[in-house]
Design goal:
13 helices, globular, alpha/beta, Rossmann fold, 4-stranded parallel β-sheet
Amino acid sequence: MKLESQNSQTIAALIEDIALWIRHQATMAGARGVVFGMSGGLDSSVAALLCRKALGDAVRGLILPCHSDPQDEAHALLLADEIDINTVTINLSPVFDLLVSILPSGDLLSVANLKPRLRMIVLYYYANELGYLVVGSGNKSELMTGYFTKYGDGGADLLPLGGLLKTEVRKLARALGIPREIIEKPPSAGLWEGQTDEGELGISYEELDAALVALQGSQAVSTSDEVTERVRHMVSRTHHKRSPIPVYEP
């Protein structure tokens, strides 16, 4: 079920469908609940609210700043307070600094990718302790273009937003009543100061999603050949990030 129509009944049905799916996945895995990171961003906020709706109190939100913008933690706490989610805050900055200090010098991206991988270590620690599953917040736009850190934010047990484009997640956020300041701030993975998703991608999410729809051939959309070809290349070169680990069979 997608958001081709912005009809409120369609969106309400999608919300119920995703919540039911989360509940089913937890039950099938014999999990007591789910744990997820709360970054204060759009996707993680939507995922958190859907998990809360699906599983009630059997959820745990982890706020894991790592040289992060203080506004991100404030937004995470704002949402947690609004929907009454039990949270734990752990500052990973000292661990990150120590790791960087003992590693050889690396480029900006190599160093920045340590942050989501450290966060996933902590998420799985809590998941193991609680008998929970780890919920990721990756959306279809990011998954298809490989815009995630392998074994970082891409390492999760469930991806409830993985079938929705970023522009669709934004519509869902409005329907769910996510605070306006979270919806309207520029999307960012918080990898370094001033980093934004669209700046790193070099394309807006509206353009990206239009190109992805065009490549799927699911409907007629208006997008330039140059943008579509660029997105096609992004999808192709990141195929390995979406595939199972190759296993040699003798």
